[in-house]
Structure prediction request, 539 residues.
Amino acid sequence: MAYGEKVLDHYENPRNVGKMDADDASVGTGMVGAPACGDVMRLQIKIDDNGVIEDAKFKTYGCGSAIASSSLLTEWVKGKTLDEASQIKNSEIAEELALPPVKIHCSVLAEDAIKAAIDDLKSKSDNAVAS
Amino acid sequence: MKSNMQLPIYLDYSATTPVDPRVAEKMSACLTNEGNFGNAASRSHSFGWQAEEAIETGRAQVAELINADPREIVWTSGATESDNLGIKGAARFYQKNGKHIITSSIEHKAVLDTCRQLERDGYEITYLPPDENGITQPEAVEAAMREDTVLVSIMHANNEIGVVNDVAAIGEITRARKVIFHVDGAQSVGKIPVDVVAMKIDLLSMCAHKMYGPKGIGALYVCRKPRVRIEAQIHGGGHERGMRSGTLPTHQIVGFGEAARVAQEGMAEENARLITLRQRLWDGVSDMEEVYLNGHPEQRLPGALNVSFNFVEGESLIMALKDLAISSGSACTSASLEPSYVLRALGRSDELAHSSLRFSVGRFTTEEDVDHAISQVRAAVEKLRDLSPLWDMYKDGIDLNSVQWAAH
Ligand SMILES: Cc1ncc(COP(=O)(O)O)c(C=O)c1O
Prediction:
């Protein structure tokens, strides 16, 4: 299968690869997918005091489109508030990367990943308030 | 030293092979007005007689390769058609004796889908699981035999992992019970010795394009002693003793015949060379962490190697290996995201099944090609492991099986 230019670019030069301390209260971690399905994404975001995402990191096990979807997402979420980041739709990712129909699930996974990371952050701050 | 290496490097000889130049030359002599272009069924002039002669030479060459009589060779369009003709043809001819068929769960789709069709027609199929090395044990075949078993279909060599079954042992079991034994020899004929008499094979599927012959030509061996009968699946002018109608493609048959001759002539020498190359490839990658060989270590085709690189997804790996033409065991390009059914049948975990690459070296592979492949694979696996959350978890000592994964 031939890959689109943007998928290739993200695959060859993935942005923001890495890992942050998942126990840090300002870090939200979203891990989605399953090895059995051939893709697992871990997306982490770090917010500043104003609730704006100041950093994002990812690691992905999966095909080139899955890697590109998560790499692109880390670029997009930086500088956004959690609310803004939660508005990102899989269709926008798929469109930007020109994913073929069989690869749409990769963009869905990326959307799931940012939602999971935001939920993780929210549950951390809820717990902090409660205790 | 000047390098002769051509990129990309072809390491997918299990999918198909280039046509050997000796074969191509013989084929080209059967096409044009100056060549041997006649219809072998034309009995009234020399064009027909010459074509027939060339076809009979090809038939004798293919027969000799498998120790058969030329009258036992039926030309087809390839192994898919041979599998269909052999399995459906025998099942239908012998249905009065029973409707139970034994095969294995890691056959090529040409066999599995043919069996599925027979199931829809009221046959009952037993799909034997292989052992963890990918071998279908003769004892398992024996144990699955029933009163109404009419046919056993087991492949000689597996297309994905390259393991070689002990067909002679299975042939003993089937012949003793007068059950028809069909063997899919698409991957083995022309690569390793096949002797239909010694192996007690009744029906053998073959194709030319995996042994340096052309695509679009195959054959089914149909045993005469004991006499095995099949029902034709393609009807028409009654060619091939009524078993497969259609004008015979002289150039294809001549190519198959020459490929068979060349294969037989150089087999021992070529295999010694291929085993060395395969071992070099394995030695070059197997010292990395979490690398697994799929299939039996010795009982395999000389040129075939299937390796899982744990925590790295196969399709992304192939994407990184731009200089290599190889295939992945995972069928991630299909919408189903199913990992290889062959590797799953071996009991490999889903991660390992998703992480596999099939390498196959052949006649034109050089040591230099293999060395380049090794360095590419090592670099790609390292790069992708740096990107892999599973590798992180493994390094942190987390058991992936203990994680609750969200299915999607
Ligand atoms: C084991 C096996 N059986 C059958 C086939 C089908 O052969 P063909 O492509 O000649 O129809 C193949 C080749 O892909 C094969 O490897």
The beta strands of chain A are 27-34, 39-47, 53-61. The pocket of pyridoxal-5'-phosphate is lined by residues B 78-80, 83, 108, 110, 155, 159, 184, 186-187, 207, 209, 218 (CB under 6 Å).
